[in-house]
Amino acid sequence: MKRRKYNSGPASRVIQYLTLILFSALALFPILLVISNSFKTRKAIFASPLAFPTPETFSLKGYNTVLLRSNYFSYFGNSIIVTLISLALIILFGAMAAWALSEYKFKGNKYLGLYLALGIMIPIRLGTVAILRLCVSLGLVNTLLALILVYTAQGLPLTIFIMQQFMIQIPSGLKDAGRVDGATEYRIFFLILPMVRPALATVAVFTMMPIWNDLWFPLILAPSEGTKTLILGAQMFLGQFVTDWNSVLSALTMAIVPVIILYIIFSKQLISGLTAGSIKS
What we know:
This protein has 13 helices and no strands. The chain is an all-alpha fold.
């Protein structure tokens, strides 16, 4: 098959790089602005918000306030527990459902996949009232379990959709060879799972960020001091008349760190997952 030739001259490369730099700057600018202003005095934040901290404007007052006057480590621990357990459940159950839909052909298989895909288009927040009533009846209000169950349900549709596309591409010969050797279906599933690592990394990053940054469900389902997550805890510095911007920006900066670490760890797998299928030999 004759391959299509693309223009890759110097001018084209310059335009590509400039475009990528522009989009990167637009994406990183708000993050850098928050981090930069978290190290400045309150007066400097409002006087010159776009300037970097100088020896005259440098201040760690916000970080001291967050660490000493709030239950930061409790909020951080709650966020870690909710996020990690939700991610583990989403990946496990999502991968199993995707495996079933891609491997076993049964009546209604196609419609079941379509039904699950509807969850991607319908925001789970539309069912907030019903979810709150259910949690009240089960006695789950002000527990981390309520958040874990909601986030697991929220992340499953996208996970099943992505994992199914990857599992369909696994050669059937590998699975049949396992069955010939007497391996159970569960054994074959866990042997196949490492082969879709790019999909797992993609799912982990895309499902972690909405969970980690969510304010809606923690505010409704778990607003007590003992179950507050990091983002909800940062709201204590936002007052009706006076807002401690140093503390708010410092709390948000510290909340960004785990997301950046996760991206650095899984960046290679994430890029592989996003570009899978776009390049064909």
